[in-house]
Every structure is written in C-alpha cells, then in structure tokens.
Amino acid sequence: MKDAFGAPQSLLLLGGTSAIGLATARRLIARRTRTVWLAGRPSPELAAAAGSLRALGAEVHVVPFDALDTDVHAERLGRVFAEGDVDLVLLAFGVPGDQARDESDPAGAVRVAQTNYTGAVSAALVCAGALQAQGHGSLVVLSSVAGERGRRADFIYGSSKAGLDVFAQGLGDALHGTGVHVMVVRPGAVRPAGRPEGRTEGPPAGRPEPVSPLSTTPEAVAGAIELGLRRRSETVWVPAPLRLVASALRHVPRPLHRRLPV
Prior knowledge:
9 helices
C-alpha cells in the first residue's frame, strides 16, 4: 500500500535496465519505496542495476523476463504478486530498432513490433489482472511522442508505440473504478548517457542524439512520472509543452508534414 506520503512502497519495473525506469526507481526509493523487482533478461547490466538500487537502501529482487517469451509472462510475473501486493508497475521495456535496416529486413521490423506492442500487451494484461485482484495499484506505461503521427524517420518504432498507447488508454478505461490507476507517459526524444541493447530511450540506431527544447532526459521523465502519480494523471507529456506541439502537428496537412524536419 502507499504510505502516508503518497509514495508507492513497492515497485515492479518491467525493463530492469531502462534509464527512465531506474531514474524513477531512484526517485521513489528516496521517497519511501522499499521493495523493487527488476524484471529483465539476465545480464551484467541488470545485476549492476540491482546493486545500485540496493546501495540506496532498497530490497531488490531480480526477475527473469523476456518481452518476446509471452508464454511464461503469467507464471514469471505471477511469482512477484504472490510475494505480496505491488503498488506500482512501470512498463518501460522496448527496442528502438533501426529504421533503415528494418525496412529491408522484415524480421527486424517484426521484432520491434512484437517487443514493443505484443510483449507489452501481454505483460500489461497480466499485471493489470493482478493489480485488480489486489484491489489497488498503478500501472504506468511508457509510450512515446513518436506514436502520435507516422514519420518517415521512425514509422516502424512509432507504429508500435501508437498501438501500445491506444491499448493503454483503453485498459485505463476498462479498469476505471476498480482501484487500479493507469497512466500513459509520452516523452519526447530522450537524451541518455548510454543506451544498451533493449532500452527504449533515445533515437533509433544510426540517428544522432536529440538536442532540442522539446527533448528530455531520463531524470526529467522520472520527475514527471512521480508528479503524475501524485496527481493520479491519466496522460503525462514530457516536457509538458510537447502536448501543444503534438496537437498542432496532428493537423498539419500530410504533404507539408512529410517535409518537416521532425
């Protein structure tokens, strides 16, 4: 259950090496989160992430999890909820893909779609059912501004995020009134310090890191997530002015939109 300060006492991070996910975990641990489950493919990076959170005083458990292995999602994630209530599930896994390569390699495009959409749908439904059974909790889904409108530069990745975004909105409506809160987070391009394989943040491979007033950082997204949880928001844009920009771009005629440097 959430403590007197309104902070979740327990966190399940799906995507245990996500820069945004780990930045969020650090903020929440500073505010009273005491138990963290990091779900991801076993790796030195995942072990290091667990160690860094333990050093902050949290009890950290590592859960083997692969977005593509949907047949075992219910069993693997069910073990977490069997240990006790989970206040917050943060779905932060995904792959950016390589747009130029994936256009000529359908298998690569399918991997992006299956990881970012199919795997996320599976994991989100498993967790949503468990949260509903316990009668409380929040599910935060990391979407992207790339899902707002198809762009030549990243339409494979963007389409996977668009599908996830619509799914999460509908799931939030389905769970309304059950005690479960669903929040969709739409960051702009994220400027990470580094991006190991499997992380969502940052531009697709081969594209330069973004430098723009509308780009953001993992720490800024984490702060917006924390604020959104306190406000029980349903949709969070990071940075906030991105909502107005996306709304305007949505109505730009297609011939003009395809020529814009976005």
